[in-house]
Amino acid sequence: MSAIDTQAIYPVRGGAVRRQLRARRLTLFLLIMLGIGLEISYLALYPWLAGRSAQVDPLRQAWEGFLPLSSMLYKRLDWFSYISTFSWPGFFYGYLYPLLLLLGLLLFVLWLAVVVGNRAGNVILLRSSLYLRPVFGTLLFLTTILTITMVIAPIHSNELIRSMLQSGLYGKMVETYHLNPYTAPNALVAHDALQSLLAQLAKSPSGTSSTVGPVWMDISILISLVAHGEPVRVILSWRMLALIAHLLNVGLLWSLASAQKPIQRISTTLFYAWNPLVLILGVAYAHPEIVFITLLLLSLLSLQRGAILLGWVFALLASLICLPGLVLLPLIFVYAIRRAWSPGCGWFLLSLLGIISITALVVLLAYVPYWQGWGVSGMLAGIRAVFWQESAVNSLNAAVLSMPVHLPANLYQWVVPNKWSEAALIIMGLYVFIAIWFLNTFEALLQWSGGLLLLWIVLQPVCWPWYLILPLVVIGCSTNRKEILLMILLLIGALISYYFWQWSHVWEGQALVTIGVPCLIWGWALFFYSTWQMVHGDWRGGGQAIDEDSRPQKLRRPPWFSRPNWSSRPLRNRN
């Protein structure tokens, strides 16, 4: 008997497999080309990361002395002399004008990468674990290259490095001077090199020790032990920690998106892994949010897989790294309790008792090393400093306070930062109260948590561009297009805010451009989309528009190559 030609019997199988292989090869090629383009663009950012006043900047001189080859690299990449012949308006502050073009180019290439990921996800559907493995390996390798580029990037004294220096000083106060950083003033270590560099920066409301979580303080002690308290080694240690956390986040996000959004897993991971906001402010300047995301992703993965107590532990640890993460705990608690209620009343009581016991144990172990001289009043003061803020920076509140036309006295007292904070807390409290009724699924948890984080960023009196890294990950895993649109607009505003902070003086009304305009565009976009949907939408039964995503899909027969072959089918009884 002659051999059976399976391609002739099942021609669709060979065509589908060849199509998937072609899509994989094309995706790999495009990702490599886009990764090379992003690498060149990030290298082109080096002159601005180094600062133009490098000759008188002791921090950059120490960095170049610690990495001798970096000085030669920075000079070769300083392409400002080639474009200095062009005359640009004074509004762009001289040498800073190409920075906007570079940031725009980075966002454009990132958008192309997301489009490539979406296209690949729509084509490579079957046997995806086999065909997407090389794609993920290539993505992770290119992400490692881009992250290392930010680790060895130049640095100079500006407001954005405060977090690394301040955290290093806190660890050194415990490790070297045996002081409690929550109670000891920085004046006691005025002779320290880290404090000398911090003294050159302007005072900031976000640099107080009470707003730093105890778990982040423990990490600072480890960094101080590794770096021996030297400023350059402290910065390099923080960047190495951010590199490890970023690569872990890429793997965790891929795993989370594979179960939540399997078709968009490539684009979702790319949007985080190659994002300029994450690489510049999360890795090059190593803010706590990058480690917070690691624990938050571990919490979400645990909750997604039904490990309620483990997910709650990771959520607690994340909030004790970055205290603004406390706003997510009510939503995670409600979701965990509802998941525990499904098996029965007995399991619900055991889960509730376990959550309460674990919370008490984790909080006790986290705060007990710093309890002496601080106590409950210090804990409450730290939480109050986060949620009842006394100053306004980069926010809509700061823009209102800095308007050229001053408000009347009876209105001005209602827009001061502490009153503004109270109003923001009331609005977020109502949001959480409404969200409690809809937290029935994991997707709902992602959507409502992302919306709460966006609400926090928009309403708080103190807003920094790296705050957007938190909702960027949570919303990226959800399927709510409205939140994704607002997040993208705020991402553009955050990068513009990073540009504004390169100026010689701070523009207090920048939130009108970085927050106000994105929210305005988002509102009008929703209005026009709703209007178009009402006019051109599909109307069925009673005049109600039906969303395309909500229509029941027709049942289709599986393709030929997914059916069992003849040899695997049960044989008929011929007797």
UniProtKB/TrEMBL annotation:
Disordered as annotated region, ranges: 546-575
Pfam families per record: MptA_B_family
UniProt KW Mitochondrion keyword: no
Keywords assigned by UniProt, alphabetized: Membrane, Transmembrane, Transmembrane helix
Highest taxon listed in the record's lineage: Bacteria
Compositional bias ranges of the Polar residues kind: 564-575
Residues annotated as transmembrane: 28-49, 95-118, 130-155, 235-256, 277-301, 307-335, 347-371, 423-442, 454-477, 484-501, 513-532
Keyword NADP: no
Protein name: Alpha-(1->6)-mannopyranosyltransferase A
Organism of origin: Dictyobacter kobayashii
Lineage of producing organism: Bacteria, Bacillati, Chloroflexota, Ktedonobacteria, Ktedonobacterales
